[in-house]
Amino acid sequence: MESKGSSCKGSLLLLLVSNMLLCKNVASVPVCLNGAVSCEKYIKDLFDHAVMQSHYYHVLSTEMFKEFDRRYTQGRELFTNTFNGCHTSSLPTPEDKEQAQQTHSEDLLNLIHSILLSWNDPLYHLVSEVRGLQEAPDAILSRAIEIEDQNRRLIEGMEKITSQVHPGAKENHIYSVWSGLPSLQMADEEARLSAFYNLLRCLRRDSHKIDNFLKLLKCRIAYNNNC
Amino acid sequence: MDLWQLLLTLALAGSSDAFSGSEAISPTLDSASQSLQSLNASLGTNSSGKPEFTKCRSPELETFSCHWTDKIQHGLESPGSIQLFYIRSLGANLKQLTSEIQTARKNTQDWTEEWKECPDYVSAGENSCYFNSSYTSIWVPYCIKLTNNGGTVEQKCFSVEEIVQPDPPISLNWTLLNISLTGIHADIQVRWEPPSSADVQKGWIVLEYELQYKQVNETQWKMMDPVMSTSVPVYSLRLDKEYEVRVRSRQRNSEKYGVFSEVLYVTLPQMSSFVCEEDLEFPWFLTTIFGIFGLTAILFVVIFSKQQRIKMLILPPVPVPKIKGIDPDLLKEGKLEEVNTILAIHDHYKPEFYNDDSWVEFIELDIDDLDEKTEGSDTDRLLNSDRQKSLNLLGAKDDDSGRTSCYEPDLLETDFNTSDIDDGTSEVAQPQRLKGEADLLCLDQKNQNKPSYPHASSVTHRPSVIRVEEDKPQPLLTGETESAPQVVPTQINNPSSLANIDFYAQVSDITPAGSVVLSPGQRNKAGTAQSSVHAEEVSLCQANFIADNAYFCESDAKKCIPSAPHTEVKSLTEPRFNQEDIYITTESLTTTAGRSGTVKHTPSSELPVPDYTSIHIVQSPQGLLLNATALPLSDKEFLSSCGYVSTDQLNKIMP
Question: Is A55 annotated as a binding-site member?
Answer without folding.
Answer: yes
